[in-house]
Design a protein that fits this description.
Low-confidence stretches: none
Strand content: 5-15%
Number of strands: 6
Order of helices and strands: EHHHHHEHEHEHEHEHH
Structural class: alpha/beta
Radius of gyration: 17 Å
């Protein structure tokens, strides 16, 4: 990669870890127990939301009486029961990409809508916490993705301009957030395939983290994307 990009900022759930499917299953189970069937179907509408924004979505969708606090506690417990004994599996290419990025001298950060306690545990259990120079969690921001706040804070923590950073995301709201921050979004789909809007906002589209390593980045390519965006 050319020196123009100095930093890589990673989403976490569905991007570094194959966790979204486990989360979705925990939603189905908790919803059934609380008398709200098929809650798991709504994960597609909330990808990238932090807990505050997601709670608001549930109340807007199911009514103010929806037991958000009970649901959140229940899903956390179910998630821990469902995940593999050795932890949540990492997505293919995680270790290889992080190792490559460090060797090449990139600054690395996590910008996840998940809370700090859960995220730190997942990253440490996955053996990748020490790769990152900075982290911003969902409970550290006021506005959830697709607002650019979380990515702007991640760039600030790394000491780089947004125009010097690429953001790796699986969700539409994450891509919108990174694009609004002025970064170079890279979409690696998980639960949701990118539509035409998300494709137009993404500088690159990859099928796995392995593919990110071989992205043929050039200054000309970046300038062409900036021109198209403007």
């Amino acid at each position: 990669m050319q020196p123009k990009i100095r930093a890589l900022v990673f989403d976490m759930d569905g991007l570094l870890f194959d966790s979204e499917k486990v989360v979705q299953k925990s939603w189905y189970i908790a919803g059934e127990r609380l008398g709200y069937p098929n809650v798991g179907d709504h994960i597609y509408h909330t990808l990238g939301f932090n807990v505050v924004r997601r709670s608001r979505y549930f109340r807007e969708t199911f009514g103010e009486e929806f037991p958000v606090e009970t649901f959140n506690q229940m899903t956390r417990e179910i998630f821990n029961e469902l995940k593999e004994p050795e932890g949540v599996p990492k997505k293919p290419g995680v270790d290889e990409l992080l190792s490559y990025a460090k060797e090449e001298g990139y600054l690395l950060a996590v910008a996840t809508s998940s809370g700090e306690a859960y995220s730190r545990t997942l990253l440490k259990e996955g053996g990748i916490w020490d790769y990152f120079d900075a982290a911003v969690f969902g409970d550290m921001v006021t506005h959830a993705k697709p607002d650019p706040e979380i990515y702007l804070k991640a760039c600030e923590k790394l000491g780089v301009k947004p125009s010097e950073a690429a953001a790796l995301e699986d969700s539409p709201n994450g891509i919108r957030s990174a694009y609004a921050a002025g970064m170079y979004p890279i979409v690696i789909p998980d639960l949701v395939r990118p539509d035409e809007e998300i494709k137009s906002l993404s500088t690159w589209q990859c099928e796995s983290l392995f593919d990110v390593i071989s992205i043929p980045v050039s200054y000309t390519h970046l300038r062409a994307h900036e021109t198209a965006a403007n």
